[in-house]
Amino acid sequence: MGNGKSSAILRTFRIVSTSNEHDTVYVGTLDDGLFRSINDGMSWDTVGGEIDSNRITALATDPNGRIWAGTEPSNIYRSDDGGETWTKKSGISELASESDWSYPPRPETHNIRWIEPDPTDSDRVSVCIEQGALVHTTDGGETWLDRVAEAPRDIHQLRMHSAVPGRLYAATGDGAERHGRGYAESHDHGETWYYPNDGMEKQYLTSVAVDAANPDRVLVSASTPPKQMDDFEGLSSAVYRRMSDGSWEKCMSGMPDEAGLTPPMIAANGPISGRFVAIANRGIFRTIDYGDSWKKITINWPDEFTEQHPRAIALIER
What we know:
single chain; four-stranded antiparallel beta sheet
């Protein structure tokens, strides 16, 4: 990518975020910085010259169309002009919990794993730091609120839903060390948390998605704790759905075998209830019935993709 050329850098692909203009796409990489396409990915240009790290680990857009970017080491930037210029939102590194943050494969550093703007309040943004904290801003990044005692420490993905302001849905890695802590939920903007995990055998969660029309319908992906990122033979993953009684049920009909499957990254395919799309190392799958069955989407899937971990999936509505 860059200089108007397009090429695949799937190993460094982290998350796609779209602006209010449907043909604009942003991609953050883990080595080469931030890219923007204004023609649905036909060509790419480098943006984010003000960002002082080439490791872009998270991207998001808020309801006002502002773009948020997170990096390794953990810093937050915001663009109010479609990615032309970026402003660092200081203060995260001054939080009291910062001394506890570390990314285990490289313990001398840490990164912004996920950014979740509130769909009902553009100035309220939740930021997941890998690993060590969930922090928040209520004023557009001018000041930051530190983690609370019962919040999960290793959130991999966080979701909100416009129908239930203040509710946070978290897929975490905490369950790898504390069984029953894989999925976490808050109903008061992260002030208090509970951990409903009944029925979920695998406890290392990677992704969470909430039904576009029903905030009580939730899908998550979970796996055995990874020993090494490239240990595909020892990996086993599954998708679970939340039932009406709050427990979880595995929903893998039409999905590949669990052994060797990377944890699927899941996104709701709104606005119709029950529709989700998931991507894993063995392809892209969709369901229209809340996980009762999955169907593989027929596309070219190179063999080398089977030994890669997809980092995110984003759906653009037309």
